[in-house]
Amino acid sequence: MIAFLRGLVVHHGPGFLDLDVHDVGYRVHVADGALAQYPIGAQAYLYTYQHVREDGIVLYGFATAEERTLFERLLVVSGIGPRLALQIIGAASVPSLVAAVQSEDTSYLCTLPGIGKKTAQRMVLDLKDKLADLALIQPMATELSNVPENDNVDDVIATLVALGYRPREAEQAIAAIERRPGETVEDTVKTALAWLYAQQSSRV
Q1: Where does the chain show beta strands of DSSP type E?
Q2: 24-29 and 43-53 as β-strands: parallel, antiparallel, unpaired?
Q3: Which of 48, 65, 109, 161 lies at a C-alpha separation of 20 to 30 Å from 75?
Q4: Which part of the chain is the Helix-hairpin-helix DNA-binding motif class domain (predicted)?
Q5: Distance (Å, rounded) from C-alpha 177 to C-alpha 195?
Q6: Mean of the pLDDT values across residues 45-56?
Q7: pTM for this prediction
Q8: Tell me: the pLDDT tens digits for 126-172?
Q9: Domain 4-62 indexed as CATH 2.40.50.140
Q10: CA dihedral of 95, 197, 202, 43, whole degrees rounded to 10
């Protein structure tokens, strides 16, 4: 089993990246929007899930071990395969998904890609009592609780998402950076991008 990979990003494709790990190439499928975190020529560290099927072995990659764990739990739900589970992971943070399942919030679950009412109900039924360990992860929204309601957080998050980052990553960046009163959206985005790049570089 391949649990993680660290290597040089040499190629991007639709929903995947190719890693050069000591002159061995690995194709790793990642969530929509995640490719922006791993530019070609940069080092990447990915937690991986190895899926074996009749026509070959497929690797799925995640930024955190918690994302991989939730991905694995989603696979036990009838109607959710690896590709759909990856889309779900890319659409919402681990804390948000766990909270929705544990609170039986099927309305929220139905907003996720590929999830209808019946699948949302199955997610609650199959996973509600199996996510206690992941429930300990604090949602990023909690870290933003001290930001004034009239601040530009929503605009900054929307801009970062448009640039290819996931909402969870955008929230994490905003929570981490120092912001000045009256700072413009453009200035905050620049600071957040610098922080995100620094985090990416630290993995090298």
Answers
A1: 4-13, 16-21, 24-29, 43-53, 56-62
A2: unpaired
A3: 161
A4: 72-91, 107-126
A5: 7
A6: 89
A7: 0.67
A8: 999 898 888 665 444 434 444 444 357 778 887 877 776 777 778 77
A9: yes
A10: 100
